[in-house]
Amino acid sequence: MKNICRLSGIGIAYFYIIGCKVNDKMYVGATRNPSSRYSSHISKLRKNKHSNKSLQNDFNRFGEENFVFRVIDASTDGWRGRKEKEWMEKLKTYDPNYGYNQNDAYFRGKKKA
Questions:
Q1: What is the SS3 assignment for 108?
Q2: DSSP strand pairing (67-76 vs 12-20)
Q3: How far lies 49's CA from each of 24, 57, 71, 110, in Å?
Q4: Quick check: pTM over 0.90?
């Protein structure tokens, strides 16, 4: 996985995906500092300590070279929660067939279509 972003800013929320090239599943997240967030994710994944077990299992199975980290949007920090949910819904990452956000608190108990 390569760090392709070097963005950070005060008052700006960046929305990113961690995507698996093998199964096309994605994880959506938000941060104020993409470079730092990338480092945190990749460090935990490499150490087999990531809290998202589904993402960790696929990382172990398919290898780091089959994952990408990409910033997909930015917004003022005040819209962070709303925009993050919108991206999760748009990309269906709460559905285990499409993504890794199924354990996200917003989507727990959400009925899947």
A1: coil
A2: antiparallel
A3: 22, 10, 23, 27
A4: no
In CATH, 12-103 is 3.40.1440.10:
yes
Q: What is the DSSP letter of 103?
A: T
Where do the structural domains in the chain lie, given as residue ranges? 12-103
C-alpha to C-alpha distances, 74 to 13, 39, 57, nearest whole angstrom: 6, 19, 29
Condensed to tens digits (0 to 9), the pLDDT of residues 46-89 reads: 999 999 999 999 999 999 999 999 999 999 877 788 899 999 99
Inter-residue contact 32 to 99 (CB < 8 Å): no
Between CA 56 and CA 59 the distance in angstroms is 5
Q: Which residues of 86-97 are buried (b: 16+ CB within 10 A; e: fewer)?
A: ebbeebbbbbee
Residue pair 97/30 in contact (Cβ under 8 Å)? The answer is no
